[in-house]
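Ticket #4471: structure export looks truncated?
Reporter: QA, pipeline team
Priority: medium

Steps to reproduce: submit the single chain below to the structure queue and open the exported record.
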Amino acid sequence: LDWMNDSLNVLRTKYEIYDIMAQNVAFSEMITQVKSELAKEQATLSSLEKAGSISLDTLVYKRAMVNGLSKQMASLNCDLKSFNLGRDQISLLERQILDTRDSMS
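Actual output as written to the record:
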């Protein structure tokens, strides 16, 4: 049981997974929100670029917003990939720990 707990702690640290269910929900919400904001900002930027009479500062600002959201989306996707790699291993080990505790009881 100690060995399994130690292994679980190592996996949690490696994949930064501490609560599978809560983190899964959080990733879904964040990705949906950022994706929505990114689409909105891209559409706004596209419209502003077509208008032609918009100040350069406004376009620079909107491009920076789109760039920032794109990087945030890329970072979330990278974190989600890591989460998915560790989720099954951690879930399995958590179940084994619970089964072992039940057996010991």
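Status: closed, not a bug. The export was complete when the record was re-opened. Leaving a note from the reviewer for reference: The helical segments are 2-15, 20-51, 56-104.
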